[in-house]
## 1
Amino acid sequence: MKHSRNLPSARGLLLFACLMFSFQAFSQNDYKPKLGQIDRQSLEMTAYEKDSTADAVVLYDYGEVRFIYDSNLGIVLEMECWARIKILKESALDRASVSLPFRDGGEFKLDERIDGLVAYTHNLENGQIVTTKMDRKSVKTEKLSDKYKAYKFNLPNVKKGSVIEYSYTRSTPFNLRDKPDGWSFQGSVPFKWSEYRIKIPYFLDYKMAMKGYLSLDVNERQQENLTLGHSTYNGVGTSYRFVVKDAPAFRNEPLITTPSDYISHIDFELSGISVKGEIEKKYSQTWENVDETLNSVPWFGGELRKSGYLKDVRDNIKTTATDPEKRMLLAYDFVKDYMKWNGDYALGSSGGVKKSFDAKKGTAGEVNIMLTTLLRELGLDANPVVLSTRSNGRISTEFALMDRFNYVICHVKMGEKEYLLDATNPYAKPGMLPEHALNEIGRLVPSKGTGRFLEIVPKDSRSRLDMIEAVVDPAEGTLKGTYNISMSGYEALSWRGKYAGETDDVYKKELRKSLSDWKIDTITIANKSEDLLGTVKIKCGFTIEPENASEDVIYLNPIMVNKWTENPLKSPERIYPLNMASGISQTVIANIKIPAGYKLEEIPKSEIISLPEKAGKFTYQVRQADNMIQVSSVIVVNKLQFAAEEYGDLKELFERVVQKHAQTLVIKKVN
């Protein structure tokens, strides 16, 4: 039910790590309804005042974790959960269908239990509050896998306006999981009250991290005598209480990495156990421990030490080139061309890199471990860099957790030059990482010594130039000319990934479809993949018949291609930062020749809008020189990360683009 991920520090980010909270004694700031009883106000609610678009609102979300001792299982984590949800629209009726997964694999000391499951539906009928309790017999058990099952149930009599609630307790043996599940204080609908409590016994030491962009409304800690059921474990522990009120719904907005990087939540990591006379153990890792572990495990470091299968390739490259950089490029091109990425990320190799080499196909981990191994065999200073992809979430450098990584690339150092290589994409030029790998930082893991974090910043942007050269023919009511497209950087990489391996007809069909109002003649495509350092170039001839055209007046939108028709940033404000994988560079230039005796009725006002610190710029200009109308639109965004406070500026820039791109030119015949 709850999910959480680590997040890095950023401006506007509330980050509390390792219990660095501003604690206070328990206060009277409390709210706890009674299970099975509902207030009339909640039932009479027809819309949520803080978000009229919400189809539901979580009125109360409560979780409490306790540790107990069981004579058969040892330490057990008990988590009490209670959710109360108001259904505001029919689109939220599916929230009445609930699934509670738990482990049940026939291993007594590792299996979980769900107890005390109760559920109610509250309605207002003829002015009276009617509460329907779910029949426990309606709960079904479904097998999810060999080791996991789920209790599934549908709350009864649910309709628009209902309030539903359910409560249960999950018991998890410490042998199965030694830390509490994370707790999220917000979700896809608004939360009026989200509360999390935990009582930690004296012998367990946890690191706790509260992350996200919402501040805590209640943040309390106090010492408390905890009775777990065994004299060894009883003693003074610590009780925590955290509350977030009126949490807005998290919107999966544009320009983010992954939702789990932004949702406010709390995470745990077991640092150590200390029971006098029984056990004294520290679990917290340092990054140096992570480096050592990666170098020692057979599926990562062990694979980097296996190179026999590359002997012939190595010898051939050594014979071909003596220059280190040339050798690097030959090795990079070989792996890119020889290996096919199967689409899986994977940090290392479960079946062995040699097996993938023989099959000419493998995971990203296998492909780039192979590249790193080959470069080392060529005498180059090459090391793997582990990272987390954008969809996997950001890495927090404050917590040394190996399981947060899910991807590997290669780092090469030659004197003062450093290269980052990824051989999974056959159309990537040297030093160009795929966008899914552009997630700010990675950890370089050398074969010996201490690793380090590297900034992962793309050198390329999404670059595209569209050029129109056209002639207006009022007599025929047409616009005829040529259309040229030039793509480089990530725009070219994206295009090549989709079309370079296909016949030209595939793209030609797509282009004609996207410009369905045009009559397009010959289309030529140059440099599909022959020179990855160069641009992809496309050219075609076209004829357009502008709407409402006559011999006296022609209405024409000069931004005929790559037009921004809507602003991707739609929210009026934003509390989350913006994160782009790569920058934007889009230029549209149109040179339109009009016949003698015609002119622009009015030359549109030029537009220049710049973001602070040269983060971005939009320029738009229309000029007429004799019988030539020249139009240019240039959009550049250099900055990749914007704080929430900068959202308004970027949104305004994009809005100006949309407005100008919608502007129509009026070309009139002069009397």
## 2
Amino acid sequence: MSAESSLISSHVVERDGELLLRDGVRLMARLWFPRGDGPWPALLMRQPYGRRLASTVTLAHPSWWARQGYVVIVQDVRGQGDSEGTFHGFSQEADDTAQTHDWVRSLPECNGRIGCYGFSYQGMTQLLAPADATPPDCLAPAMAGLDERLHWSSEGHAHWWHLNLGWGLQLAAQQARRRRDRSAWEAIRRALEDGSYLRDGPELLKRHDPDGMACHWLAQDPADRSAWRRHDPPQSWLRQPMLLLGGWWDPHLMGILDLYRRSEDAGGMPELHIGPASHLQWWPGAQTLLLRFFDQHLKHGQTGPGQQQFWDLGRQEWRTPPQPEPLRWSLQGDGLACLDPASGRLDSNDAGCGEQRLVHDPWRPVPAIGGHLSPSAGPADRRSLDERADVATFTSAPLEQSVELSGQPQLLIQAGADQPGFDLCVVLSRLPQGSAAVEQLSCGVIRVLGTEAEHVAERRVLLQPLLATCSAGDRLRLSLAAAAWPAIGVNPGTPEHPSGAPSACHRVVTMTLELAGSVLSLNPFNSGRLNSD
């Protein structure tokens, strides 16, 4: 072992470790553990970004976990970091996970008990294993999901544009570094720094990582369920103690909610916390929440039903999920909802009425801000966007009493266009009493392509789930647009041309919104099943 592969501090010892798989591939890992007598329970993370990084963008450094009485193992997955082999993404992980768990249990520093932790890709590596594999003692997958179409790469039949490209190019750059291809690495890095990846990203992926997951995802049709893979963890793993962490502004929130339901269906008692978090920015108490969970199940052997805690975006406090009353609003307007904020109305008493035309100019597509898909994920004030003439707004009267928005918003509306392709992008916001702010709460999109788009028909737009209490005097607003760039690629107005950055092939699209019969409602969390499609 080289001098730099081991380190001893006053409290923590570090060393490298390697696992020789049955097929001859070596996987490298880094270990952190307390000085003194062991063995200790193990915390395992398997990730593709380099084991020394150890997901410290969101999680405490492994040395902190070691000081809490754990041996921490962070492993480079096959074909990434310093591990041998070829990286194939999620499809490779099941067998390697099972062999890794056997290896961890055999380590002299491990007392045989294993907890898995990590988010995003590192959440998936906790869940994928052969059906007969021995499960870990507990799992804490955060911000991940099992359906590559609905939980990783698209919604409303539209690709996540900047997310797919940014993540795919990050992995492509790591592959270039492994090949010692400096020019490829620098080309990718420049594109990410100057923003040109939003236009040139697909070609960069085809050139530098043609077999990568992101390249495959962008080539697949998000409207074709049969073309996509959905992963199935062993039922015995889903029954193990599980802590699920999600964020209101995280793109994988629907995946975490699906995991919660699947664990319950398998007979598990999962614990669920959804907080004020984006994918890379978590709330301060997340580390102590994880520590409490691992101490409970790895040190004290305690079991029991898992709790549910949701952050109320309105009250700014943690709550158990409420049992909300049914809520419904209709859209009303006289055709000026894009120009006069008093024209478009959100009404909880009367039926929808009126018609609205919405003109989409691909030269200046409506940008996406905040929320779960944009480059600026998180809370946002969308006042300036709602003032654009290509955004239709429908605003309620001041609320007579407080209202709990709890669950998944969905909009039913009659919509069509004069071209064989359009996007309908919907945002729900709160207008606090006494303020000019427009606080964006939730957003969603639907993409319609082909001759179907040229007929006015009922469309259903599903938005990101939320919990937000609005006070008496607040108003609600629904904003409708035909683009959310670069969260999703700009619809070209023709099914023959792929979406992406605006081009000379993109057409001006005029949408017709018929408001009669329009309904904005919320599917509550306790309905048993939230919709993804």
